[in-house]
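2024-03-11 09:14:02 DEBUG pipeline.ingest accepted 1 chain
2024-03-11 09:14:02 DEBUG pipeline.ingest length=102
2024-03-11 09:14:03 DEBUG pipeline.predict start
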Amino acid sequence: MVLGVRGDIDLFSAPVFHEYVCTQISPEGQFILDMSKVDFIGTAGLSVLDSVHASNLRDGRHWAMICGRPLCRLLRAAGQESSYPCFPSVDSALGAWHGKTA
C-alpha cells in the first residue's frame, strides 16, 4: 500500500496527518508513506513520524518513507537522517524489501 501526502504539515495539520496515517494502514501489512509532495513539514510533523515509526516497530510492521526536499532538510536539521526507513522513490523502497525477502 502506498499512502500519499501533500501540502504542508505544521502544528495545525499534524493531528489530521497522524489520524490519516493511522486509519489507513493495515495492522498486518507493510506500507510506503510517500512524502515527496509535501511542501513544508515542521517539528509537529516530525513528532507524528516518530509516533508512526514507534508503532510500526512495536507491531513488527515494515514501512518505508519517500522523502522530498522539505522532509530531508528537516531530518538533517534534527540529526535524524538515518532514524527512518527513507528512500528516494517507491521503486527503491520496494527493491529494498524484495532484497530482504529474496
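2024-03-11 09:14:41 DEBUG pipeline.report The first strand starts at residue 2 and ends at 9.
2024-03-11 09:14:41 DEBUG pipeline.predict end
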